[in-house]
Amino acid sequence: MMQQDVTANNKRKWWITSSLATAVLTGMVLTGTTAQAETTTTPVETTSQSTSTPANSKQATITTRTVGEQAKADATAPVTPTADTQTSEQTTQAEDTAATPETVPSADDTSAVAPETPTAGTETQPATDTGNQASPTETEQPATEKPTSTMPQPSTPTNPTATESDEDATTESTGTTPVVEAPATNEPTTTTPKATQADTKKGLSAAKAVPAALAATPNSDEISDDEDLSDRFDDPVLLAAVRKALNLKDGDAIYLDTIKNFGLWSSLRIDTTANGNYQPISSFKGLEILKYLPEKGQGVTIFTQLGTSGEDVKNIDFSPLLGIKLNWLDWKTDFWGSVTDNQLETITQYETDAMQNLEFTATNINKIHFTGMTTHQFEILAPFVQKILENSTTASQTVAFSGNSITDFSALNTLSPNTSSRVVGRNQYYQATDKIAYQPGDTVEVTSPMKGILGESIKYQVRYYQNDDSGDLVIAEPHEATIMENGQEKTVWKYTLVNPKLHNGQLVYGQFYYDDAVYVTYPENSLGQPMPNFELMAGAIVYQPIGEATSTATVTYVDDTTGATLTTENLTGDVGATSAYRTATTIKGYTDLGYELVTDDYPGDGVTFTSAAQAFTVHLKHGITTLNNSKRVTQTIHYVYADGTTAAPDYTAWLTFTRAGTRDQVTGEEIWGEWQNIDGQGRFAAKNSPVLTGYLADQAEVAAIDGITATSDDLTTTVTYTAREAQNILITYVDDTTGQTLHTEALKGDAGTVSDYRTAATIQDYLKQGYELVSDDYPATGAEFTADVQTFTVRLKHRVTTVGNSKRVTQTIHYVYANGTTAAPDYTAWLTFTRSGTRDEVTGVATWGEWQNIDGQSSFAAKTSPAIAGYTPDQTMVAAINGVTAASADVTTTVTYTQKGAVVPPVTPPVTPPVKPVEPENPDVDPGATKPDVVTPKPGPATNGNGAAIVTPARTRPAQASLAQPGSAQAVGTAAKRGTAAAAALTTTAASQTDQQATTLPQTNERATPWAWLGVLGVTLLGWVGLRRKKD
Known about the structure:
Blueprint: H1 3-31, E1 49-51, E2 62-66, H2 67-75, H3 88-95, H4 197-207, H5 236-245, H6 256-260, E3 267-271, E4 273-274, E5 277-278, E6 280-281, E7 299-306, H7 310-314, E8 326-332, H8 341-347, E9 357-361, H9 375-389, E10 397-400, E11 421-431, E12 443-447, E13 463-465, E14 473-475, E15 477-485, E16 488-498, E17 502-503, E18 506-510, E19 518-521, E20 534-545, E21 550-559, E22 565-574, H10 584-592, E23 595-600, E24 614-622, E25 624-641, E26 646-664, E27 670-672, E28 676-677, E29 687-688, E30 695-697, E31 701-702, E32 715-723, E33 727-735, E34 741-749, H11 760-768, E35 771-776, E36 790-798, E37 800-817, E38 822-840, E39 846-848, E40 852-853, E41 863-864, E42 871-873, E43 877-878, E44 891-899, E45 942-943, E46 949-950, H12 979-997, H13 1011-1031
Parallel strand pairs: 3-7, 6-7, 7-8, 8-9, 9-10, 10-11, 11-20, 21-24, 25-32, 33-36, 37-44
Antiparallel strand pairs: 1-2, 2-19, 4-5, 12-16, 13-14, 13-18, 15-16, 17-18, 18-20, 19-20, 21-22, 23-24, 25-26, 26-27, 26-28, 29-31, 30-32, 33-34, 35-36, 37-38, 38-39, 38-40, 41-43, 42-44, 45-46
Pfam families: Muc_B2, MucBP_2
Protein name: Gram-positive cocci surface proteins LPxTG domain-containing protein
Region (Disordered): 36-206, 908-946
């Protein structure tokens, strides 16, 4: 068929498909149903058993329930076809193509007899099943009174080391049709077209080739329109399934246009089942072309079996699916254990954004074998699984690993699912390695091998055959126990087996029926994040070897410096025997690496194994060595002539620094302290250059160098001498305060002549800058040039002036009525603080001393509030304020007066500006100014009926006495010289007299001023003083 014909045909099919899909969707909406393909049943939370988490795991209530209990809960909710679930309708549909199921005895069927088993020690491959039947997805069976077994009776386990040639050495015991985790779908069962002869021949050739490297995704620009992409496939079975998925016939070419124009909203379903049986594939090569499917498609679904042997599986290249939008992967093989870590790492890179379900299960879940996926392999896939369950898919999800050998699901401890989800880990097959002591008729205890999401021990229903020839499976009694694991206490589930039957020298116990598995729900993960509508289904069959009673002991080597575990030795031996292991050799190895022994609690003559596991710890720490280091920073001054020859010996000085540190003998890391200058200084002093007759140095002095540290570089300075043409006079201006040279004046002249240079002008400039002259040895009349170089020095220093400062902290008390008007004059007091200091007139920097209180006190005395007739102050006394310093803020207090039982509401008096105290040195109030009238409440003769006097207004002329001028913490009047206490007393007395003589005038809103009375009092006091002097 030509490519153009295929393109036209595809377009016609697309329109037909779209029309049919539209009609179907319309019908579904009209009937009120919703078709949901490839989704997961929302887990129904049903609580039946509560298991406490171990002490070393996340503390949360973990709920478990049997499959029977879950089935009852599921029966009340709508069932959606899904991974690891199946509706009865699908079961019936699958039975049309599945092989005839074999009969398996139920739990109460006494005719069930354990099959014969191979001789102990025989290495066998997995028992041959009835064929790779593509049975429907597992049925979440409803609970029944007598559960029907979905597990075979015990047979000899497959030895994973057996050769592939032994594959048919053993046949499986009687059991039901394997209940396999196959895709649940609403589509009818179909048959994959057989591969063509050419495809088969090509596939056989490719299968013999070396495994391909990672498949390179083709660039669509490199694919021609007429290229038949089917040539890219190596596996004929896969090619046939892809053709069928693309609605092509056997032998049809696959063109790029076919891929690009596949149904926009469809999921490309690749299914390798034929006539109800899986057809295994050995290569995914060719699937990389699916990268060009429409972006809006639902993704790719692949149902297949991987190879027929461990060697097949180990050689599969999984990279062709990289970068492809995936929806559902249902891959089955009994040889998951042969998949390499690198292959699993490739799978973890698959796109997960659109993935709904993942099933990596055994071909026949009920076939006992030990070549399935291990816990280690699951841990590699765990991040991939977590991304699937945390993607944005809104439909429920299932990830299934049934029929493998996974016993620990704690790699998912940080899982936080986005929607209802389930991880299925039932029918795990675990081959124990440690032996337990057992004689027929004994009662033994065994431990649940299963660990959940939080690492907790999982309790599921355990059955076993008793050694009584009845053929009955009995349920083991569970109980919790505390054990030591890796040096820590842990709670686990144990089971009591009473007279269990041996099968080929081993005890066999565990999940014999589908209903024996358990559902575990978790309120939150190990990070405390919620895990709503998530559950783990788990169960396992254990093959336990017997022999002499053995026990374990662990020796853990801990690095106390880092807290890390260096290594752990796991010792195993018969109970009562003494281990030959000694810690001395291992400790010696660590001490050679720089460690030091801290403690070792392992017995020096070896541990004697007991029935209980034992744990020992050897603590080591990093050895530390003390280090010392020193460094010298050198200053060198070269004295040379202009031609570079030496004029004078070099001058050398140095500063020495030392530091202490430590070296970690394990890591080699060094930690150093700070450098210390053993010379007690961090500078090189100034150095005068030697005077050479007839020569002039370009630097008469090499200046001092400050700030020398251990990180400073060595310093080199060169002083150059040139021959003088005339005699020289050098005048150096030196700052004695800092020791710095301010200026150097070089004079030249003929010998015998006098220089006209004078220092006065330069000195005057420095005096203007704040310097003071200390000395000047330059002649005032000028210096005479002589045959030798003459040097003079003018020394100056910074002028320092004395400065002072003062600050006043003021206390003000306002006396007001309730309406805010003035009730009595403000009271003001203050404390004055001064300080002295100096100012460097060159730098302008001032240095201050401490503040001093010139009043000799640091508090404001308590002040009694003036009494006003008919009014009550809210503070009869303003408390003293102590601890006043120059840093204290001004203090303002308001005392409010309220009228005592007045009948007539007081009329708001006119607002009178408060009297402002005037500082003598800065008056801002005219003492001679006329004061405003002041109305003072005055007791009246009448009462208001409750004993309180009714006040009547009286008008008083303003007094002419001037206001007192407050000083430092001093009050008004003649008490100014007696301090704050006298001022307070005087103020109180004046206020009291005013209160006794004043009359309140509420009807006129006027007040009599208290200053008139103060004036009278002042005149009286002056007269008394004059009389006293006259008498004297």
